[in-house]
């Protein structure tokens, strides 16, 4: 009899790491009307409903900064630039 050696294959599973997420922030300003801010939020971030846009605007108005959306970095940069293009003050930061 001939012994048969088996070759054990290594487990090559790949663990996917989730992409880092970023917060798009809206900063309060004294230049734009509340209506304009809500309208701009809904145009730049189409997934925001009117009540959500109002909440973001009010959060920024009361706390000086509001979280618009949390998403992947590329999208966060896109939304941030869109808000800046509307004359709003916006920035992004990594979600912790």
Strand and helix map with partners:
Layout: E1 21-27, H1 34-44, H2 50-63, E2 65-72, H3 73-85, E3 89-94
Brief summary:
The chain has helices at residues 34-44, 50-63, 73-85; strands spanning 21-27, 65-72, 89-94. It is of the alpha+beta class and 96 residues long.
Net shape: elongated
Straight-line distance between termini:
62 Å
Order of helices and strands: EHHEHE
* Mean of all residue-level pLDDT scores: 91
Count of DSSP helices? 3
Low-confidence stretches: none
> What is the radius of gyration computed over CA atoms, rounded to a whole number of angstroms?
23 Å
**Approximately how much helix is present in the residues?**
25-40%
- Order of strands, main sheet, comes to 2-1-3
Number of strands: 3
Structural class based on helices, strands and sheet pairing? alpha+beta
Largest sheet: 3 strands, antiparallel
């Amino acid at each position: 009899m001939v012994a048969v050696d088996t070759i054990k294959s290594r487990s090559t599973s790949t663990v996917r790491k989730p992409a880092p997420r970023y917060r798009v922030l809206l900063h309060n300003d004294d230049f734009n009307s509340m209506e304009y801010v809500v309208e701009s939020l809904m145009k730049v971030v189409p997934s925001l409903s009117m009540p959500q846009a109002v909440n973001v605007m009010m959060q920024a108005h009361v706390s000086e900064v509001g979280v618009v959306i949390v998403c992947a970095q590329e999208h966060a940069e896109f939304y941030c630039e869109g808000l800046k293009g509307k004359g709003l003050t916006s920035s992004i930061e990594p979600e912790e």
